Give the backbone structure.
Amino acid sequence: MSWQGNILRVNLSSGDIRSEPLNMEWANDYIGERGLGTKYLWESMDPKADPMGPDNVLIFATGPLTGTNASTSGRYAVITKGPLTGAIACSNSGGKFGAELKFAGFDLLLIEGRAEKPVYLLIEGDEISLQSADKLWGKTVWETDEWIKKTHHNPLLKIATIGVAGERGVRYASVVNDLHRAAGRSGVGTVMGSKNLKAIAVRGTQGVKVKDPKRFMEVTDEMKNLLAEHTGGLTKYGTNAMMDTMQEFGGLPTRNFQEVQFDGYDKVDAKAMLATDESGHTNLLTNKACFGCTIACGRIAHIRKDHFTIQNRKEYWHASGGLEYETAFAFGPVVGVDDIDACTFAGYLMNEHGMDPISFGVTLAAAMELYEMGVISKEETDGVELRFGNAEALTIMAEKTGKQEGFGEILGLGSKLMCEKYGHPELSMTVKGQEFAGYDSRALQGMGLGYATGNRGACHLKHDTFEVDMDDQTGAGKAEPCKTSQDWTAAVDSSGLCMFTMGAWGAPEFAAQLDADTEGEWTAERLIHCGERIWNLERMFNLAAGLTKADDTLPPRLLKDPAPSGTAKGKVNELDRMLPEYYDLRGWSEDGVPTEDTLGRLGLG
Amino acid sequence: MRVAVKVTGHLIDLCKVAHVDLEDGASIDVALSTLGIPSNQVGLVSVNGEAVSKAKRSVVLLKENDEMVVMAPLTGG
Amino acid sequence: MHRSLHMEPSLCTGCLQCEMACSFEHEGEFNPARSRIRVFEFEHGRTSVPYTCTQCVEAWCMRACPTGAIFIDNDLGAKLVSAQACVGCKACVSACPFGTIEFNPASGKVDKCDLCGGDPQCVKACPTDAITYLDAGATGIQKMAASAQQSSQGVTA
């Protein structure tokens, strides 16, 4: 019911591959996907292990609703210890790969050890093997996808792969599936590369069944109708519809977070993607859905053929994934660039080479600031003028970093290690080593608390205080909505569905779908309780890995340099006010450690 | 009186005008309703660059030539 | 009225709800591998095209079948497969030029679109109307209307 009842355990050191029963007790306590993967991770490894060593464990986890006809049922998570942060890494992706794992009969993949030579995992129904990747090592994500399908005469294989960035240890390398969807953050691709695992290719022919088919079909139908009324601009504009809101609000991080508004925003926002230029070219071609999704926020775009980036490079003349908000922010405002084709091309490179656009963009921004200060020289940057606004610098460096050439090797460290190397750690806009997303927390205060306390480092997706943050640009009353939304988001991330349904569906709507789908009785309360449990388990992992309260902080720029403009002009982030309140609400000590009572209440004692 | 209007995000599909004519001393709520933008679909309104909280939308009164920005709610992404 | 499935790729987002609806209707589970309608993507998803049996009037599959297992439902115009008569020889799979009849290893028979008895589930499941169930004699009417609109200055026919 909803689950196939099996996990696949792969030991890359010994080559042993075996199917095991899914631990249903854990599935029932942790819902699935993020929660279930975290529990498996907790039980399978020492949190102190080297993230790039053989003792790190890499998990691909689906949810109970993955592969069903609930809308947005394509989600899966990649869970491991992150090389960028030294903390738990849980990266979520869509596309088709996750559902295909279910159809192949597996709820979760657990990968241990390290292969002696590069391999890829091939799952064709019950034929499962580790194949030599000697012909794939060094290939891009797109080449790998094509090669595997062709070699195995199976166009229906769904492929999750790393690019050269992951092979060569770029700290924020991603796992890309279905060509342009990704488990993007925290270096989950770096872990895969450190294990000499190039790709996972899967094809399945088993169905996913549900507990109460008649009720399930009725409920998912009803929920789809509800969702259709609440997608906002996602279908038509994609997430980049937010850029002009962030500009007007004054929270759009610009030039390495020195400013909060960018005068070139309207050249790289959703409207710019829809505009037709004088040559008749329009950036956006169409929208696209992940498996099961009735929102279809994905963008498919193309670059002007005469643009400097690709005019002599026909191999990039095809369409591919277009700008989302984060990619647009990371290649636009934060590096001061207003060239939509350059931003789109950099986005292509992120998918082709397998890197997190957010971390790359914010790392490049720090490098630009260091360059403009005279700390990094032109000799070191291979003759490239690393100035804010230089579109060529953006695209050249994106490619160098993907291929790990020249200065790309420095950029591949991530901004924390890079800024430390140059003696300016304060210019790294990160928390726990992971770069911020496109929301400045001097303007969005609760976002700052979420960034500071997020278990995987600076992350905008693990809490949701947008509504209260827009309404009130102070830190007052932000701790409670931050904590509540963190617990709730953990539950959503564990269900197999996409968080972009959260504008339409609350806990009762998720519970109704789960209750018809999987074993046990699922209520809103149970979901939220599981969410809190998941959050605390992630925290426990981090504490065991050696993180402390000192890591729940923000860079000096956000704590000390007031926002220079916008509705929050003059403000700094009020973390010192919000954090103690937050710890208290969480049932944690003043040092941010869950108390015995809290652990007991959550069954984690 | 005439007030300049700018909308962000997908609200562009609800409101395509750049000004709105209102009675003197109209509140933000009145302006939104005149423009046909449901208040619950608005993330934030600012007037001349200053944010106005939801609770104050019925109370803050607009003046001639004010610049009102009506912002869509934010989501993740 | 005879109806046909009509696919409009420009509206398709590749969500695969149709594949799930089809497999659920016929197999009671969500299993795109057993769907009789499939969505194909080209150029990194620039185009997504749902495709299925076009219910040929003079069907190659029917002609090729040695046991007469494929027959016409005259009300629907659908070509249906009789599981009792089907021996799984796959002659129809080879004969169909479009690839829309397929062998099912689990059942040992062949599967194809049967229009769900006149209530096609893929149509209901599609969130964008990329798949519709139209008057079989007028499936091109929208295209013709679009052309007519372009030709308002006059056309020589």
Q: What stands out?
A: The longest strand of chain A covers residues 197-203.
